[in-house]
Amino acid sequence: MTETRPDFSQPLAPAGLVALVGRPNVGKSTLLNRLIGEKLSITSRKAQTTRHRIMGVRTDEDAQYVFVDTPGFQTKHSSALNRTMNRGVTQALQEVDVICFVIEAGRFGDPDRKVLALLPEDRPVILVLNKIDELKDKAAMLPFVAKLAALRDWAAVVPVSAEKGTQTDALLSEIKKALPEQGFLYDPDTLTDRSERFIASEYIREKLFRLLGDELPYAATVEIEKFETEGELRRIFAAIVVDRESHKPMIIGRNGETLKRIASEARQDMTRMFGGTVYLELWVKVKSGWADDERLLRTLGYE
Ligand SMILES: Nc1nc2c(ncn2[C@@H]2O[C@H](COP(=O)(O)OP(=O)(O)OP(=O)(O)O)[C@@H](O)[C@H]2O)c(=O)[nH]1
């Protein structure tokens, strides 16, 4: 009879959960992608594109980082979808070992202050000043950092550029110092606990944010209706779900061009991530009021 035993051969090493928190649009998703080196979390120019907690795992020889990308902190609108997102922030913070509080270098306003107020006192928090590549006056950073230093007892303060990859190694080393010494939490080959199905829907949703106007992406979501794997081939059947009949032609575009572009770009991302060949069939369907129906949210995987 064979028995499965836990593997104790892995020596103790810094390992644990790391949350990236901050107001929308500070660059949390870009930073996560940079830190794990894979395109897992979606990024876009518009605020509030992360509706889910996404976990990415980085395993180095001497440490394991399990990243949690929390939804943007939303105060403006109060539909059921946004309530779900705010709950996500609070929940994520209660489960982590280290928190990276991300702000834009040189900018600290009310939305940042509100997120800071959510951070638990008893956890190491690293202050990450992102987008330093955009800073014109570097000397002005000194008084800015001095002011922030007084706000709480930070585990470290690290300026970075998530986009350019500047100083992200320094950030990793500060996170490592703050992580508890324990065995690895995940198999070193693990990149994410999210299914390929979920990743596929996130890639499509990202294209909506990149290729459509300002309002439309917020009124749309993505449902994967079928996901078949056959050797190296994946057949994915997905629907873009919109609120109103009038949104449909906007997503399809003239001669179907917009929809074709969304599908083609999403398929390229999937091929890069999954390997093999990806066949993607994408269409648009109408489900009115989807964002305000909590029950429907659950069936779409938001809770
Ligand atoms: N110049 C510059 N831009 C950046 C940097 N990091 C992120 N950005 C840009 O900032 C915008 C927002 O980035 P995201 O990573 O989507 O931000 P987020 O905080 O995850 O946003 P939400 O999902 O809304 O919470 C995008 O246009 C990024 O390209 C950086 O280091 N420098």
From TrEMBL:
GO terms for cellular component: cytosol; plasma membrane. It is found in: Cytoplasm; Cell membrane. Residues 69-72 are annotated as: G3. SUPFAM superfamilies: P-loop containing nucleoside triphosphate hydrolases (SSF52540), Prokaryotic type KH domain (KH-domain type II) (SSF54814). GTP binds at residues 22-29, 69-73, 130-133. Its main location: cytoplasm. It is a peripheral membrane protein. The keyword Cytoplasm applies. Residues 130-133 are annotated as: G4. It comes from the Bacteria. Residues 160-162 are annotated as: G5. Residues 22-29 are annotated as: G1. Residues 48-52 are annotated as: G2. NCBIfam families: era, PRK00089.1, small_GTP. An essential GTPase that binds both GDP and GTP, with rapid nucleotide exchange. Plays a role in 16S rRNA processing and 30S ribosomal subunit biogenesis and possibly also in cell cycle regulation and energy metabolism. Belongs to the TRAFAC class TrmE-Era-EngA-EngB-Septin-like GTPase superfamily. Era GTPase family. Monomer. HAMAP family: GTPase_Era (MF_00367). This is GTPase Era. It comes from Fluviibacter phosphoraccumulans.
